[in-house]
Amino acid sequence: xxxxxxxxxxxxxxxxxxxxxxxxxxxxxxxxxxxxxxxxxxxxxxxxxxxxxxxxxxxxxxxxxxxxxxxxxxxxxxxxxxxxxxxxxxxxxxxxxxxxxxxxxxxxxxxxxxxxxxxxxxxxxxxxxxxxxxxxxxxxxxxxxxxxxxxxxxxxxxxxxxxxxxxxxxxxxxxxxxxxxxxxxxxxxxxxxxxxxxxxxxxxxxxxxxxxxxxxxxxxxxxxxx
Length: 226
Ligand code: 5RP
Hints:
The chain has 226 residues and is of the alpha/beta class. The chain contains six helices and 13 strands.
């Protein structure tokens, strides 16, 4: 997972995407440090009178949005106009997500949005996706999925918690296996293979979902459309 981007670059990306939010929209609120800048910026716009409803993608984004004063709804109550979310790696319009283990809800919200904007710093950009792919699994399927991932040519590692003994438990109560495949030349095919494994809740390959990426730099933002 690439975590080396500067706060200034993340802020520039997040705030650039937040500027596109329009009055009356339902906005998917992504997870992670870059999306957090967008959520805080949207909160300031709400303070100034912007009328929107946010749909959080995780416990973290819900808490942050509440602090920022953004009115919230669940996905089953609304339909999302615009989603803004971070990424761990970006190659063209394809992404690896799940560094915060939130990719299952993120994918539901981001895929349902009319427009999905990715916010990232330049360290996330790559020619070809090659980072480990987070795979959320039911705990009962941990070993069968790991075996199947090896058969697909990947090396699975159960993600361990940092300040708790044992594994990371997702917001959905499941485990995360980070699966290293090396360079992923055919992300769509791998996405289909991973999604078909019994016990996989969701994987972090977001193929062809992004509409725009805002890449923040210390001195500005580059926006690319797909
Ligand atoms: C969480 C994610 C995040 O969007 C991704 O990890 C990027 O985070 P950050 O902006 O902190 O680098 O997918 O599951």
